[in-house]
Amino acid sequence: MSHDWEKVLISPLKSIEDALKVIDKEAMKLALVVDESKRLLGTITDGDIRRALIQKKSLNLPVSEIMYTSPTTATLGTSRDSVLKMMEEKGLFFIPILEKGILVGLETLHNIVHQPLINENPVFIMAGGFGTRLRPLTDNCPKPMLKIGGVPILETLITSFAKAGFVNFYISTHYMPEQIHEHFLDGSEFGVKINYVHEDIPLGTGGALGLLPEDLPDLPLIMINGDVLTKVNFQKLIDFHIENEADATMCVREYEYQIPYGVIEGEGKKVVSMVEKPTHRFFVNAGIYVISPKVIKSVAKNQRIDMPTLLEERMSDDEEVLMFPIHEYWLDIGRMSDFKKAQHDIQSLDL
Hints:
The protein is of the alpha/beta class. The chain contains 11 helices and 19 strands. The mean pLDDT is 87.
């Protein structure tokens, strides 16, 4: 929100000329009319004053004569995306923020577009795998440090999160961890904070959760494999998890498989149907999760467990495990063909 919103407050008893001075002096191009309790009564823009002048109204009249009494407002705590959507739908450049009818702030289009969003939700990146299917490339380099378009996969991933406002990172390492440490250090060069957890022995895709510090922020955590390239909207993923009160959310991707033969169904000796080369569609695990604090705490230190097993255990305890289908670009760089595809795709991706 704007830090200078109180400078454009004006009493309903003030004159139109007083409002004009406020609008001319401040950069917001409006005045907010409030009573002694800061209850919003209306708004005045330079357009309202121009219309008053065209109608030959005296500038000595009180602002209550020309103020707009039904402005669009938002309640305190409304997400930036929701406020921006309201602005876009109604062609607005500002929206007053209210709490129980009292004016507590002013959101402007300029602030929303240009002010970076800081997201405190932790991001946990799995970067300890051996990358055996990418040998010999991984003989002397951990897979997340392989370069796509001249930049390590892990750096591209962290940069994508940073652009979305995420600043709090944890990286799980095992294979050649020193290369990752030396490249990223504490993350300050990339505008983020990075902490490391090290698996002395491989703990599976979920076991590293048990190595996270006890003072982890009490917020849902995004967990992602360190060999994934994606343009998924991470904020929408977090919002989905919170709005649906999930304990865990798994990102899934639709996968098509075409059987290269005609499929026959029969009853005894009788053919009852024939389908030529049918295509089957499935949802597959995309290697991206949102995990709530209580699920994290359920993993013991140095416990070896894979994420599917962990989520199945949570489901057996009647906890909410949801899926979030992603339609954005996504590529798991697990094989040499994926690596070559990534080198081609990165040229057209804004990553």
